[in-house]
Design brief:
The structure is a single chain. With about 575 residues, this protein is α/β, with parallel strands linked by helices. It contains 13 helices and 20 strands. Helix content is about 25%, strand content about 20%.
């Protein structure tokens, strides 16, 4: 699963990869398949008789996606985190205590050998779907790196043949919204290379949208299909796919109806993937759910999933998926279901909170009943029943703020203003934010907020919101302005300013403006500039926003696909803001 942020950011930006001549030569040498007219290729497909059957243990056990990262707080921290055998052993024993018997590892070089060695050295009854994680091929170095990843996967699959049940090459690398796309022709070559060097069944993990129109160059080289389905995320990214609100259902039955609707969508998406294989006369190709899950926490900075994310709702979906897996073992569904995921991982930031265990290795409500609190594991604080499941409810309309000024951040007191209370400053995509007087005071005096961009490949951002979910009624400011002081030393190109609101349907809406030097007073000349933006400009950008239910009172961001910067832009200077307020 990929990590993204808010509705204006699509599930992942589309990307077109341009290979240099040198890289293309490298790919041609490495890949064992070559595209030609009509979608054919030079290599023969794997014959029906040569398809490798899924091991019995693989299709009879509950399964989960697993990564051992605990302390990393951003993607940049991952390489420096030390993965210890003792921590891995603790994790695997907790996983076993739930009754889960298969784990999926995403890559072969970061920590997989540590995990496999812990399983072998401690005689753990666990099987593994080992992963290889190739990245986009943009030059010779990236192709060389991919080959090293494939070689590591081959070595581990052969060394730990008694533990590695199957192998998957690639993770969401070919679906249209992937941020790390690998051409199917290249991926087909990667799969063929790995498969020819090991004995286990081989697949690639991808979203159902890919599998429903899977190209022959992939379908002809896999032994089974590993399909991802996330109805939970579809409630945000593709709300027309599922009636998650279930408003027609009585309130005391609504949460159960929502989860049941999500399960129905998962089964429908699985059927679409099945249809894509059937069109290629692959009716007997086995299928598994490679990823599906339900967040227990609506994490700030991620897709807005309030009224859905909760430990009780997660348990309801988990239980339904295990029941579906049991059906699959009888031939009526997926041969296995890999739940996402075993443990929370803070480095995912806004995409965290999906674990069956939290970062402290405390069991969530979802699995607590599979063991004993204080014996099998330490349980996460909180006592729940099915009645605690969250569900759609109408938003609470607060009285409209009548003051002429609504102040978010300012040291100077303005007569007659209303100061926002209970607000938190959130970050997404690795940004850092702190109050400081470093670098000199603004015209407002005192402290200001210093933003240190540390972007993911698609950008960065910060926002002011109520952690308690309180919505401010700022409808009286519809003819007013959003104002703030800003200072940056040659920040390149455009920057983004936005707001977000709830709606009567609880369908979070955002409005962003991309502004460059000279727009609304913005400058990047290392002096403090006064920016003043009419609220009408945000309404024009997204007429669906509702100022009666304002959630993010201000957003400062730079999503590169919207500001015109190359993806993976780095080296951005600090941005300082102060004197932030709404005015009539």
């Amino acid at each position: 699963m990929m990590s993204n942020w808010l509705q204006a950011m699509p599930r992942a930006p589309k990307r077109t990869l341009q290979l240099s001549l040198a890289a293309a030569i490298a790919v041609a040498l490495a890949a064992t398949v070559t595209a030609c007219g009509g979608g054919g290729y030079t290599e023969s497909p794997v014959s029906v008789t040569d398809r490798r059957a899924l091991p019995t243990e693989f299709v009879t056990r509950a399964a989960v996606n697993y990564s051992p990262y605990r302390s990393s707080r951003s993607v940049d921290d991952l390489g420096s985190e030390v993965i210890t055998p003792a921590n891995v052993l603790q994790d695997l024993r907790l996983i076993q205590a739930t009754g889960i018997g298969t784990i999926r590892l995403f890559s072969s070089r970061a920590f997989s050998e540590t995990v496999l060695k812990v399983i072998r050295d401690n005689g753990l009854d666990l099987k593994v779907q080992l992963g290889a994680y190739p990245n986009p091929v943009v030059d010779l170095a990236s192709e060389t790196d991919n080959q090293a990843e494939l070689d590591a996967c081959i070595r581990l699959a052969n060394t730990y043949r008694d533990i590695v049940a199957t192998v998957s090459v690639g993770n969401e690398t070919m679906v249209e919204w992937s941020t790390h796309k690998v051409d199917p022709v290249i991926m087909g070559g990667y799969i063929r290379k790995v498969r020819s060097a090991i004995q286990q069944p081989v697949t690639t993990n991808d979203n159902f949208l890919f599998w429903r129109s899977v190209p022959k160059v992939i379908a002809d080289v896999v032994d089974y299909a590993a399909v991802h389905t996330y109805p939970f995320l579809d409630t945000f990214y593709n709300p027309s796919a599922i009636d998650w609100r279930q408003k027609a259902v009585p309130a005391d039955q609504r949460a159960a109806a929502m989860v049941a609707a999500a399960v129905a969508v998962a089964k429908s998406q699985f059927a679409e993937a099945r249809g894509g294989l059937d069109k290629l006369n692959l009716k007997d190709l086995p299928m598994v759910i490679g990823e599906t899950g339900w967040a227990a926490v609506d994490t700030a900075g991620g897709p807005a999933l309030a009224l859905r994310a909760h430990p009780v709702n997660q348990k309801m979906y988990f239980d339904a998926m295990q029941a579906w897996a049991a059906e699959g073992r009888r031939g009526n569904g997926p041969q296995a279901v890999f739940f996402f995921q075993a443990f929370d991982e803070p480095w995912k930031q806004g995409d965290d909170g999906w674990g069956l265990f939290n970062t402290r290795r405390e069991a969530r409500y979802t699995v607590q009943g599979l063991g004993t609190c204080g014996v099998s594991w330490t349980c996460e604080p909180g006592t729940y029943t099915a009645a605690d499941a969250v569900k759609w409810v109408p938003p609470t309309l607060s009285p409209a703020i009548t003051a002429n000024r609504y102040t978010l951040v300012a040291d100077t007191i303005t007569p007659g203003e209303v100061r926002a209370t209970g607000l938190s400053n959130g970050v997404f995509a690795n940004s850092a934010l702190r109050p400081t007087a470093d670098g000199g005071s603004s015209p407002d005096g005192g402290l200001h907020l210093e933003i240190t961009p540390n972007p993911l490949d698609y950008g960065w951002g910060v926002f002011g919101y109520s952690a308690a979910g309180v919505l401010d009624n700022l409808s009286n400011f519809a003819s007013g302005r959003l104002n703030f002081l800003i200072r940056s030393d040659s920040y390149p190109g455009k920057i983004e300013v936005g707001i977000s609101t709830d709606t009567e349907d609880r369908d979070v809406q955002e409005a962003f403006l991309q502004i460059g030097p000279g727009d609304y007073g913005y400058c990047n000349t290392n002096v403090w500039c006064q920016v003043s933006i009419p609220l009408s400009a945000f309404v024009a950008a997204n007429p669906k926003i509702d100022l009666r239910y304002v959630s993010s009172r201000i957003i400062i961001a730079d999503r590169f696909s919207f500001t015109g910067k190359p993806l993976n832009t780095t080296g951005l200077p600090k941005v300082r803001i102060d004197g932030t307020h709404w005015s009539k």
